[in-house]
């Protein structure tokens, strides 16, 4: 799916060697990094909230009003906006921007073929049937989105694609040229707002992805599931993230956690699981540990990944994650 296997494994070997080198250097740093509360933000996904069976507008307002989140990353889902060629429906995004303005919230809008949440790539049916339509279609949509929101007072930054060169998700073969063209298009249309690139925090060398961007966002996952190992914890220490960020800042003005895991890594649909079993995959204690870990990296901002799950559990009568997260954010 992602091109020549030999090239892919060579690339991964280089990244692995670099990560080992970074880990060795990180040991030279203090093992007791100071805790620093970052600016807490969140990614919010309408399709994910809807999939969980909650009213996405109620969930969105609760995140703004009760969690008091002031920075949001919002994906622009092509499959929902343009169900027929050239016919755009911006009603969901309009609502999101209007509520953000009412609550003094700033938005990073994620554009492109690959944007946050599974299956990562959200192609309309008319594009999925003919991939030759991808490049002209996404360029036209990007122009339409930027024309509509570039002057909106809550817009903080544009994100072009999501971890575009990390092989994860049900996606067509990634095109470096398409991503570069889309990035250049965004720069040409709007050079006043910041431009963000994202990459894997655990499985990439950040320095490679920082040049040319105002913000580099990295994911921070601790508890993951991989075959054939099962559930495991990434071995990286906060010092590794601190070192990687210091190197990346040589090229990018800001380095942030764009995706901080605050929900379980599900092997199967959470709707097929017993609620208590699902909660035990990621408890309030895990939440405290993950957000504390984020503080120890020293990065300036951390966008929570999974607040929709907190809200879903609360709607089912379990407020433990919601209350724990709210307390940490407030403190």
Describe the protein.
- The protein has 331 residues and is α/β, with parallel strands linked by helices.
- The chain has helices at residues 5-26, 46-51, 56-65, 78-81, 91-102, 125-128, 134-149, 176-189, 238-248, 275-281, 284-297, 307-315, 320-330; strands spanning 39-43, 71-75, 106-111, 155-160, 194-199, 215-220, 223-226, 230-233, 254-261, 301-305.
- The chain has an eight-stranded parallel β-barrel with strand order 1-2-3-4-5-6-9-10, surrounded by four helices. Strands 7-8 form a two-stranded antiparallel ribbon.
- α1 packs across α9 (238-248), α3 (56-65) packs across α12 (307-315) and α9 (238-248) packs across α11.
What keywords describe this structure?
single chain, 331 residues, alpha/beta, 8-stranded parallel β-barrel, two-stranded antiparallel ribbon, disordered N terminus
């Amino acid at each position: 799916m992602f091109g020549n296997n030999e090239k892919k494994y060579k690339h991964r070997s280089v990244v692995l060697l670099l990560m080992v080198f970074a880990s060795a250097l990180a040991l030279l740093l203090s093992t007791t990094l100071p805790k620093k509360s970052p600016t807490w933000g969140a990614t919010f996904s309408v399709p994910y909230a809807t999939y969980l069976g909650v009213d996405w507008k109620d969930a969105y307002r609760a995140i703004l009003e009760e969690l008091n989140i002031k920075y949001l990353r919002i994906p622009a889902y092509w499959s929902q906006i343009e169900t027929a060629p050239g016919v755009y429906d911006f009603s969901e995004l309009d609502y999101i921007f209007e509520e953000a303005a009412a609550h003094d919230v700033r938005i990073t809008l994620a554009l492109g073929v690959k944007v946050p949440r599974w299956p990562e790539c959200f192609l309309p049916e008319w594009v999925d049937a003919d991939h030759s339509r991808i490049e002209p279609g996404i360029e036209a949509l990007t122009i339409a989105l930027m024309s509509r929101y570039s002057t909106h007072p809550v817009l903080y930054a544009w994100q072009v694609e999501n971890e575009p060169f990390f092989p994860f998700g049900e996606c067509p073969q990634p095109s470096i040229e398409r991503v570069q063209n889309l990035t250049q298009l965004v720069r040409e249309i709007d050079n006043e707002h910041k431009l963000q690139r994202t990459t894997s925090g655990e499985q990439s060398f950040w320095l490679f992805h920082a040049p040319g961007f105002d913000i580099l966002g990295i994911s921070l996952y601790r508890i993951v599931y991989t075959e054939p190992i099962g559930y495991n914890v990434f071995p990286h220490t906060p010092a590794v993230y601190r070192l990687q960020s210091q190197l990346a800042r040589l090229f990018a003005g800001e380095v942030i956690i764009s995706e901080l895991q605050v929900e379980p890594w599900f092997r199967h649909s959470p709707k097929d699981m017993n609620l208590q079993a699902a909660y035990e995959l990621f408890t309030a204690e895990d939440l405290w540990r993950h957000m504390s870990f984020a503080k120890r990296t020293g990065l300036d901002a951390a966008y929570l990944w999974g607040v929709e799950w907190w809200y879903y559990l609360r709607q089912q009568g379990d407020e433990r994650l919601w209350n724990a997260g709210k307390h940490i954010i407030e403190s």
